[in-house]
Amino acid sequence: MSVKITSVASQLPPFTRSTAEIIPxxxxxxxxxxxxxxRKVIKLFENAGVERRYSIMDAEEVxxxxxxxxxxxxxxxxxxxxxxxxxxxxLNKASLSPTDIxxxxxxSCTGIMIPSVDAYLINKLEMKQDIVRLPVTExxxxxxxxxxxxxxxxxxxNPNKRAVVIAVESPTSTFQxxxxxxxxxxxxxxxxxxxxxxVLSSYExxxxxxxxxxxxYHFYNAEHMMGFELKNTGLQxxxxxxxxxxxxxxxxxFVHPFLERNNLSIKDIDHLIFHPGxxxxxxxIEDLFGSLGKNIDITKAVLxxxxxxxxxxxxxxxxxxxxxxxxxxxxxxxxxxxxxxTAQRLxxxx
Length: 350
Known about the structure:
Elements lengths: L3 E8 L3 E4 H11 L5 H12 L5 E4 L3 H4 L5 H26 L9 E5 L9 H9 L6 E5 L6 H14 L5 E8 L12 H9 L3 E8 L8 E9 L7 E6 L2 E6 L3 H12 L1 H5 L10 E4 L4 H12 L6 H10 L6 H12 L6 E8 L3 E8 L1
Parallel strand pairs: 4-5, 4-6, 11-12
Antiparallel strand pairs: 1-7, 2-3, 6-7, 8-13, 9-10, 12-13
């Protein structure tokens, strides 16, 4: 029995600014900082590989002194709207109704809400009352693929069922207004808000790329490399500068064995569906795969157009591959990294 991805849909929040439009807000925020440091910060934004970002709040609100409670209230209100929009689009693409879904997974790490967003969606769309729920809150950027792995395993064990995975994130809600550290600034430079939803099915007659295999790879003693610290002011980003080099060091361990167990090698991969974590991580992956004759042009385009939307971003990349059309028989490798530190993979066949 196979599990297929039958649709993917994205939903952007209402506010958007280009990098050029954000620079004036940065300059006001940096008032009082050493001039050389101000120039460094602005240059970092300009060279981050992100031309536009979307947000659940306008720039004035992002740079306003507000409490964690106030920002989290916006996160809760707006992420429910985004998730409903993405889910509705994905169902429409697959010609399904809300009651056709048996398993709902929602992933987010950029705010706190109990009950989780899936509970609101079940009520708003009048989904099945016996639908199985799984909210995933602490996997960070890798959670889009994590959710698909959990959905695939559920569907593999349950023929003729359908699942949705909804990734909804607002990294701008985690911006620390009183924190002038480079980690906070790098985070602001590369991240944006967004939401995406994918529908998966174990019905044999439904069409879409088949998930051939999945795997997680956990880096030992690397908990410090990525994540959030919960402060009185909100979720404070943790991002170690050694992430790109650590990925490069472990690359042969989490890519080649995964492909080999499916009797494949890099040359057999037609499409790299890679999560754009940031310019340096993208460059690292491009160097590793580029030497093997592969490109990640769509990944770079998504980073440029939206920034890193945490767990949702890899689904934006997947949506573009599906939209542009992929040949029957093509093989795709989905790859994301996240807190833990972990690398997670899906192998797809069209």
